[in-house]
Design goal:
Helix 8 (253-256) links the parallel strand 13 (239-244) and strand 14 (259-267). By secondary structure, this protein is α/β, with parallel strands linked by helices. The chain is globular, with a radius of gyration of 20 Å. The longest helix has 14 residues, at 298-311. It has helices at 42-48, 98-101, 151-154, 160-170, 186-197, 212-217, 229-234, 253-256, 280-284, 298-311, 325-333, and strands at residues 3-9, 16-22, 30-40, 65-72, 84-87, 90-92, 113-114, 134-138, 143-144, 178-182, 201-206, 222-225, 239-244, 259-267, 289-292, 317-320, 340-344. 23% of the residues lie in helices and 26% in strands. The chain has two domains: 3-159 and 316-348, Alpha-Beta Complex (Quinone Oxidoreductase, Chain A, domain 1); 161-292, 3-Layer(aba) Sandwich (Rossmann fold), CATH 3.40.50.720. Strands 3, 4, 5, 8, 9, 16 and 17 form a seven-stranded mixed β-sheet that branches. It has a six-stranded parallel β-sheet with strand order 12-11-10-13-14-15. Strands 1-2 form a two-stranded antiparallel ribbon. The structure holds NADPH dihydro-nicotinamide-adenine-dinucleotide phosphate and zinc ion.
């Protein structure tokens, strides 16, 4: 396939710079997509800076991709050129294990192939993500984007949306539940909107006084300043669920105290390790649970997009010229984004 313009990091400290590479020829089940928009997830930054170890350079990040189909392989029946489609965090999996059979490809027993930084299962090349003009993806890992959603502000649904939707659904969050969302960034602000739409009473925990008014505008019923000990103490034993999107290692114990008995603390922020140690007594004496959750499977990703279309939910986005990606990463580090950068891919072609 034609050469593809992109942005890549060549090392953990290089910053992002223009790069180009060849996308593969279409396999029989492939969909070729011209990318219009791609969200900037904190995971992109973690991978670029090798926070989790094992990053494969050059890294072309991006897993909140929306664009139009330009061509399909001979076996593809679900999509045709012109369709508005999305690609999220995964582009392949073994497709035969019990997890894949259940539509939980993110928990594929062999490990799913991530949109960037994974080895392609067929040709062994490193996958490259959505900070690029085009992408080629097997149809099983492509979702249909409802045409009534604004595509730029829908792009982050492909990661921030599904990562918060999936645990809320899994734990059957709904009317009568009190949900706390920790961290008001890309994932956190989607957690607020989705938990509200599911009927829960929602509180945002933020370090930032400046985000209080906006959290309420987005539908949060209450806001707690997490650095204020008195406010944290007043919240003791009051939440059914906490959805933790904080991207760095942090002390879970003050938050666990805010859960009711039988309450669940759900980690989605990919922090390693959890420190300081969990106080087992906080779990044992109230039968509290600490859980984790990874994105969502393909059927659930489609369900989430349809849910968002029905409830008119999209992300609050700041449009980004890709040439400013390094400054955007600096702002992301300072939690100074309202609330997701989305790259307008036309800026890659200028
Ligand atoms: P953002 O940077 O957009 O938001 C994170 C928020 O956490 C910030 O806005 C800030 O909120 C809060 N925060 C940041 N630093 C600290 C700190 N030092 N102490 C306390 N709170 C802090 O990140 P994303 O929403 O894009 O991603 C969040 C995490 O989720 C990342 O680790 C990412 O890798 C992970 N992730 C996990 C996925 C999964 O499948 N489990 C999928 C996608 C992402 P405030 O200013 O309100 O305090
Ligand atoms: Zn992400």
């Amino acid at each position: 396939m034609a050469n593809t313009r992109a942005y890549a990091a060549s090392s953990p400290t290089s910053g992002m710079a223009p790069y180009s590479f060849d996308r593969r020829e279409l396999r029989p089940d492939d969909v070729a997509i011209e990318i219009d928009y791609c969200g900037v997830c904190h995971s992109d930054l973690h991978t670029v800076e090798n926070d989790w170890g094992g990053s494969q350079y050059p890294v072309v990040p991006g897993h909140e991709i929306i664009g139009r189909v330009t061509a399909v392989g001979q076996d593809v029946t679900r999509y045709q050129p012109g369709d508005l489609v999305g690609v999220g965090c995964m582009v392949d999996s073994c497709r035969t294990c019990s997890a894949c059979d259940s539509g939980l490809e993110q928990y594929c027993i062999e490990g799913s192939t991530m949109t960037y930084g994974s080895l392609d299962r067929h040709d062994g090349t490193v996958t490259h993500g959505g900070y690029s003009e085009k992408i080629v993806v097997s149809d099983r890992f492509v979702v249909r984007v409802p045409e009534n959603l604004d595509p730029a502000s829908a792009a982050p649904l492909l990661c921030a949306g599904i990562t918060t939707y999936s645990p809320l659904k899994h734990f059957k969050v709904g009317k009568g539940h009190k949900v706390g969302v920790l961290g008001m960034g890309g994932l956190g602000h989607m957690g607020v909107k989705l938990a509200k739409a599911m009927g829960a009473e929602v509180t945002i925990f933020t370090r930032s006084e400046s985000k209080v008014a906006e959290a309420k505008k987005q539908g949060a019923d209450h806001v707690i300043i997490s650095t204020d000990k008195a406010q944290m103490k007043a919240a003791a034993d009051s939440f059914d669920f906490l959805l933790d999107t904080i991207p760095v290692a942090h002390d879970l114990n003050p938050y666990l105290k805010c859960l009711k008995y039988d309450g669940t603390h759900i980690l989605v922020g990919l922090l390693t390790p959890v420190e300081p140690a969990l106080q087992a007594g906080l779990l044992v004496t109230k039968r509290r649970v600490v859980a984790g959750s990874l994105i969502g499977g393909m059927p659930e990703t489609q369900e989430m997009l349809d849910f968002c279309a029905e409830h008119n939910i999209t992300c609050d986005v700041e449009m980004l010229d890709i040439r400013n990606i390094n400054e955007a990463y600096e702002r992301l580090k300072k939690s100074d984004v309202k609330y997701r950068f989305v790259i307008d891919m036309d800026t890659l072609k200028q």
